[in-house]
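Tokens for Glycoside hydrolase family 65. Go.
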Amino acid sequence: MKFRYTIPAALLCLALSYQIKAQRIDRYALVTRHNVEISRIEPLAPLSVGNGDFAFTADITGMQSFEDHYWKNGTSLETLSTWCWHSFPNVDQLKLQDAMKEIDFHGRKIMYASQEKTPAGEYFRQNPHPVPLGQIGLVQGDGKPLDTAAIGNIHQKLDLWRGIISSNYTVNGTPVSVETISHPEQSEVAFKIKSALLKGGLKTSFRFPYSYDFKIKNKPPFDWSKPDRHQTTIISQTPNSVLLKRNIEGTIYYVSVNWQGRARFKQEGDHRFLLEATGADSLQLVCSFSKTLNKDAKPTFAGIRALSIASWKNFWTTGGAVDLSGSKDPRANELERRMVLSQYLLHVNYAGSFPPQETGLTTISWYGKHNSEVYWWHAAQFYEWGHTESLEKSFAWYKKILPTAVAQAKSEGFEGARWPKMSGIDGRPSPGSINPFIIWNQCNPIYLAELIYRAHPDKATLNKYSDVVFESAKFLSSYAFWDVKTGRYILGPPIKGVAEHNAENETQNPTFELTQWYYGLKVAQDWRERLGMPREKHWDDILAKLSRPAIHNGRYAELETEPGNGGSDQIMALGYLPKTPMIDEKVMAETFNSIYDKGGLRGFISWSLGKGALTAARLNEPDKAVNILANDRFGALFLKNGHVQRAKEPLACPAYLPANSAFMAAAGLMAAGWDGAPNVNAPGFPQDGNWVVRAEGLNRLP
């Protein structure tokens, strides 16, 4: 009887799986049920519009009227781009070499820029940095700031499907409505303002700071104290437009303001301007930022609105989507909300031509620099969620700086390309006590190039990115050191592990980095064979003789040199990375379960949401994978606007986007599967009947 019962049950499950896959997702319903709605002033929940290369973050007024209040109590109100950078004058003629210290590398001396507290170290960490393009807000009729106490009857909504912020509220009892949108490609933000107060009680303010006060590294305040070190000049003016030139010690960009409706634009100080509607209760305006002068462009609110709607519709109707609405598990709606809001935020903040800082275009962190060790977290999810074009857009920067990376490796006595750990747009390494010793960034370009190839498996892809892959692999092979005493290739010292807590000169063979080295060289060999090239013998020798990860008490150690020191980054060797001969799945299962059982969800916050869930899913622990993704502890809590605060410094990093991107990397794998995954729908989710996962447009990880 049992045999006759189980066959129909299995067939029923299989049929249900196919039915789930066949049903088309109502993407409009999926996205819009997670529109963000705000009913009070929440400094931790500003809303952004943007396109990956430009973003404007608005407060409850739909503009940037309460900059100081939001900075002190939550998230800065920024207008940022990937293309506009500034450096403070190098008055002391400092050189990067002034921040260097001689470090021993297996008997060879290398100069590393590890002295971050020196004048040169501080200067080259801070420079170059992104330019705060300008503040656009509402002020009282006399030019004084609005008072938060005057704001009432708040209803603000982010329409995710169209990329429009609608802000409705009262100022001292009088209604105000503002629509805020961004151009899908240009650095332009547009507003439609309606209120009787425009006739005399409300004006639009444009202010331009010098830069940031970098006494604070993360979320630095604007520097308004140096008006003489920059210039804001009116180049031309008409009854409905004005063109401004900004010059910050040689960094030049242009700001054009175009409006529809009767209004007067006037200067109120060196770097402050007011736009006053004259006798009208509505005003439409567009503010454009550009590197070059363009006198002919006359963008309109209606035109940008139409482009925004079309662009966001295209974004949501292409690529990947996951619908959990049929699930019984009470956490399903929150997981779905996290996915949808993260897709929006990552497109606004990460889908640009320069690999992002960890807070994207929302706030400044680490002086606005790109930290390349987390680039896989930033960008792999674009491939998984069917938007490989966004991965390729920022990956082009790695091709651009390849000569710089090759020169850096050569200066240290290595072959190939050594990628900067922390860098601005110029690709130059930034000094730091940790930066020169991090190596888990070096394999990321190979892994990401492989994902691009999986999306576009043709010779054109191989030819386009083979230089990045092969030069990266040359560095990997050059860095791996043959230890005569033990008859194996080793990594380090000096080296800093992922957690950055270890002494670099005493550390050797981190489990994750060893497995990265193996996978990176293996993929590089695959690329050679795809191109009809012979395998590199030295790379094969390293693959055969590379140190295997250390095992202590039946579990993988994070570091070979600290086998009993705990840690959890070793689990990335199977999760973040696919299965390789370096890792025994049973030992990894023991390692992961020991960490999970001992610490529970405390250790799986921030980008460790992705770290833990990826490993759990690959180890066939779907319940634990979901528990990790649904974690609501501080540091894993997704705010109303979808952002996650960094637990270590929640107000300094109130919008820590690696948490979102790592979450999306894991969610994508759990829904789409991976090479060798069980042949069931959504293999990373529990198959207990409580989860109905409808997924489409996703790409599998290796």
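The longest strand covers residues 251-260.
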